[in-house]
Amino acid sequence: MSAVSTESLNKVEQVLADNTASNPNHLAAELFAVVDLIDGNGGLRRGLTDPSREAEQRAGIARAVLSGKVSEGALNVVSAAAEARWSSERDLADALEKTAVTAIAMSAEQRGGADALDAVVNELLTFVNTVNSSAEAQSALADSRASKEALKKLAVNLGGQVTTEEGKLLLERVGSATRGSTAARLANEFVEIIVKRQNRWIARVTAAEALSAEQIAKLQGSLNTTYGKDLKLDITVDPSVLGGLRVQVGDEVIDGTLSTRLADLSRSFA
């Protein structure tokens, strides 16, 4: 998002914070439904983002279309989004989707604090790693003939032992409404939204074999010290790397795997 749209998103999330006291998961489900409505209706999308209209007019369109169909809290959030300025028409729906994910994160925090939020992130990461390692799963999730309910169920099953209501809601969303992305990529985006809320980063670690609890603790401590943040480790086992570790934090990659060193050596001889 551009700076203008990011500033508008921040304002919408401020309104969200004032409207999630009762049932943030229900509010999130309503916002997802509004995103789908906006995506499928070009006239409505243009009306809600038209810079030639006054902010009050755009909010009035939102209320006229949605009044009586969603809760007052959802109506307040969508109206605030309509009043804001966006760099592109799509940015409004993108912002509402991000806001819905934030509402679900708030639900987990209210229910069980950081531990509950970590559980949700772990369920999403399990889904991402499972899908990325299975061409069959990727094909099934992209099957346009499958019903939304079937895709929701498949996505939840691919998340492993999903025990949180919030994780289930998010996985159902990534399974049934990718909005031009892929399910795994969208799940990754949801993870980034949640860990950013925790002021954390994701460290994606690839190892040739499973790490012991002691090794994970040492790696966690070393990376936290290096980056000055409490990182969330996403560890994937890939025997093809042969040995060592590959760590990616944001755009920075530390590759100490044996397969990479062998490839480098082979290129030097060539």
From TrEMBL:
<comment type="function">
    <text>F(1)F(0) ATP synthase produces ATP from ADP in the presence of a proton or sodium gradient. F-type ATPases consist of two structural domains, F(1) containing the extramembraneous catalytic core and F(0) containing the membrane proton channel, linked together by a central stalk and a peripheral stalk. During catalysis, ATP synthesis in the catalytic domain of F(1) is coupled via a rotary mechanism of the central stalk subunits to proton translocation.</text>
</comment>
<protein>
    <recommendedName>
        <fullName>ATP synthase subunit delta</fullName>
    </recommendedName>
</protein>
<dbReference type="InterPro" id="IPR000711">
    <property type="entry name" value="ATPase_OSCP/dsu"/>
</dbReference>
<keyword id="KW-0813">Transport</keyword>
<keyword id="KW-0406">Ion transport</keyword>
<comment type="similarity">
    <text>Belongs to the ATPase delta chain family.</text>
</comment>
<keyword id="KW-1003">Cell membrane</keyword>
<dbReference type="InterPro" id="IPR020781">
    <property type="entry name" value="ATPase_OSCP/d_CS"/>
</dbReference>
<dbReference type="Pfam" id="PF00213">
    <property type="entry name" value="OSCP"/>
</dbReference>
<comment type="function">
    <text>This protein is part of the stalk that links CF(0) to CF(1). It either transmits conformational changes from CF(0) to CF(1) or is implicated in proton conduction.</text>
</comment>
<keyword id="KW-0472">Membrane</keyword>
<keyword id="KW-0139">CF(1)</keyword>
<keyword id="KW-0375">Hydrogen ion transport</keyword>
<keyword id="KW-0066">ATP synthesis</keyword>
